[in-house]
Amino acid sequence: MEKSPAAPRPTAKDIAADMRQRLVSGELGPGDRLPAARDLAKKYGVTLVKVQNAYRELSEEGLVISQQGRGTFVVDPAQPIADGQGGGSAFLALASELSAMHETIRRLDERLDRLERIVGAEGTRSVS
User: Which of 5, 6, 53, 84 could covalently link to 12 via disulfide, CB atoms 3.0 to 4.6 Å apart?
Assistant: First the structure.
């Protein structure tokens, strides 16, 4: 998505989509630093605010994490994100939902164990 005089300027959503594509293609991987926002703004011919908004969108999706003075980095899904480091509301919502699913599975497993013990005990009684 290079800037062209005749082409309309990309929106923050367009820039975020382009960066997302770079993640999907493997051009950017876990731990990689995203281009500096100023450099990307110059490349796309947009304001710095548009690029910052694109990076914020990616951060809210839990795809990247910004570190003051260091830059914005691709999140490594294998590494937990420490509290206060961001991860975005979408990431936190997903983590919460996943935790609830794990709890439901744990309770279902306990119920299955109880049912198997009951069925096993009744099967033993009817045989004798």
Answer: 53
